[in-house]
Amino acid sequence: MARTLNNCPAPAKLNLFLHVIGRRADGYHLLQTAFQLLDRGDMLHFTVRTDGEIRRTTEVPGIPEHEDLITRAARLLQSATGTSLGADIGIDKLLPMGGGLGGGSSDAATTLIALNHLWQTGLDRRALMKLGVRLGADVPFFIFGTNAFAEGIGEELTPLHTPKLWYIVIEPGIVSPTAAIFSDPELTRDTKAVRITDFPEATNQFGKNDLQVVATKLFPPIDEALQWLRQYGDARMTGSGACVFCAFSQEHEADEVLQAVRKTGLSSWKAWKAQAIEHHPLSHLLGQE
Q: What is the pTM of this model?
């Protein structure tokens, strides 16, 4: 059995649109969204332990080890499968917390996929997705392995073809707490449901992000970044924020905007370029289903 698995990507995601169409009796919001994987993300490293201990070997500011979705995912897989093995887990953290890019959820998904392989616990994709939803609504998407149209609380997934675009993402330098956005009394929850066939393959200019109105009111830096980026196209917020993005068909167009961001002199902003990808980089570890 392989004892280590290094350089395991945990890619970022964008919500190309995000509609809140209702609310369940238990308080969870009913959503429709299009998830897009990017070729930028965190990088995780795994080494098997025979003593059953789970250890995070990298300090992550603001996230105690026992609360980290990485260690929680590892312990959940341990518990579900009864394995006696453990792991040392390191992470090169690139994605911001509270950015709407799915960083923590992607880290958890990569942990489940990688340790299921290393520990030879034998769970298939569906079983891992069922575990993943216990950690967060976005986790199943990253295990699903391809871009997707999502419904329910985000766990009902249908494969979605998306164009191979380039994206500029701006991190406006703040954290946007998901709970604060969803609990705001001004959040509308009655957007008309759409069908996957309504989503055009040729463009991402579809729908809107229902959370954006609330987030920009609560956190003006998000609105400032959006207004600036709208000079160049259909800029939107991803997830519950705080990151905003804009799509470009050509890499040189994205490069020009990236240079323009840097010329603003706003030290609170961090901007970067990423390309859309079709499949999760670790999808092959779960085989074809």
A: 0.95
